[in-house]
Amino acid sequence: MPAWVRNGREEGGAALAAGAALLALDQVQRTAVAWLGTMRLRQALAAAGATGSLLRLREDLAAFRDAHHLTRPADNPGPAGHVHRAWRSLASQPARLDAVGLARLVGPLAPAVTHGDLLAAVGDHGSGDPVTAAATAAARLRAAKPGPDGDVLGLMLADLVLAARLGWAHPVPLLATALAQPALRARLLRRPGPRSNPDWIVACQAGYATAAAETYVRARDLAHRAEALTNAMRVVRTKGASHGLAALLADDVVAATHLAGLGSERAARRFLDRLVALGAVREHTGRATFRLYGL
């Protein structure tokens, strides 16, 4: 991936860089390989961490990860867990801009935003290039609902519009991850208005260029890791191992308690620790207990 794409700059403008990066990522998306679930949900974690500061949360990525994975679905995961789960929900839903698709965005993260607000923000999403359509939808929602909640939901809506326009099966959290770049953060958090709207679109183009390029590089790394995991499974003789393989490829990380298909939590721990010893899986917490494993 050339540096001018990763940096969101080129002589032809940020639009060209965004198009090049999204073209590369689009080729990955259309392969429909099993590890795309890991890629999307890892992006969701990065987006949660990047937007947490907007919502005055001080947790690091490890805390955002723990808040979801170490809490039962029916329990309250706390503010960090709610943000992480909102981004995971976006990354898991179909890329649809109909009533069902938009309704999934409305939740505890931005209770003041209505379905009507989202419909008005999307507007005629068929006009313009995908990045411009995504940026315009986000700008409309942020203008209608100023404040941190509207900003975060605007970033989510942008990714949903982009994915729908590109024909992806599921959205990939992208634009929010560009907030990790100080120069892009200042531009992306600037309040878009009638006069600054062109500047906002250029900022989104640069943001998507950087985010899509970085995600493409991560995707290539995940492809190698997934191949190593698949090869390692040939020497692992565990009942229900196929269930464990599918779970590891579908999510950012898994805990032993998530692998019910292996018979018991103890069997799942042995299975996961064996894969770590083979170099096919990483343990992401560094803890002796409550461990989380993934590519």
TrEMBL record:
It comes from the Bacteria. Pfam families: DUF1403 (PF07183). InterPro entries: DUF1403. This is DUF1403 family protein.
